[in-house]
Amino acid sequence: MRSADLDARLALAKDIAREGGAMMLSSLNNRTNAPVHKFKGAHDYITETDGAVEKMVRSRITAAFPADSFLGEETVDDKAAARYGRDIWVVDPIDGTANFARGVPHFCISVAFVRDGRTELGVVYDPVHDELYVARRGQGATRNGKPIRVSGIGDIRQCIVEAGWSLRVPNEKYLAVVEGLYRAGAQVRRAGSGTLGLAYVADGRSDAYCELHINSWDALAALLLVEEAGGYVNDFLANDGLRHGNPVLGCTPAIKDTLLRAMKLQA
Question: For 2-73, where are the alpha helices, taking DSSP H only?
Fold first, then answer.
């Protein structure tokens, strides 16, 4: 794999992440005091900014790499599905849309590049805090250019675990995971962005992120961050996770067995 090939894609990923972040901030700063909330599902917010950011990202990628496929949250591309295993960009224009829609400053853009069924590049940008997370396979993970590492904490009783929630899984299963984590002694939280939840694991700000089902655009970029920061991640792309999603776990390695048991997953 030619280095220049990925160099160019990584440079583009960072540029479009920052441009998308600027669009989010502009929209956030111009929001009304009482916005009308729109939903595409019971708890699934949608905003005009989601579509605008994804349109910008897709057009920039298509102009630079017209042979590449694109899989985005707002515009699922059949071409990408047909070409699974080749060159695919996987993008969430706003992860944490419910936070964004309500003016809560915890959301981001996620850009991943997958080649031959393996994530090679991951870029996550939090525009509110101007934090750009970048990972390239085999070259580590950074925040604003500085290397990051998982926390390395080995005692679950000292750990902070974020447990994501999804309507795609029965509440009883989610509650069982949370109960298992509390019984193990972990501190459990939920902040509303799976991408940032995983990025914070990579950055040592928390010790694990787990969710019983998440879509690929919410997870792939940040999972590479965790992996390159020395953490454990499950095989998310197994069983066509690219198109259908999967359970997700990213954590400091010493606590993975406890998390796997709580989620009833195999390593």
Answer: 3-29, 48-64
CA 64 vs CA 61, 76, 119, 215, 231: distances in Å: 5, 20, 19, 26, 32
Return the bridge partners of 10, or none.
Answer: none
Q: Which two tokens stand for residue 205?
A: 């700000």
Which has the higher per-residue pLDDT, 79 or 163? 163
Record: fold of 3-147: Fructose-1,6-Bisphosphatase; Chain A, domain 1 (3.30.540)
C-alpha dist (Å) from residue 160 to 247, 261, 262: 19, 17, 15
CATH fold of 156-263 = D-Maltodextrin-Binding Protein; domain 2 (3.40.190)
Give the per-residue pLDDT at 41.
47
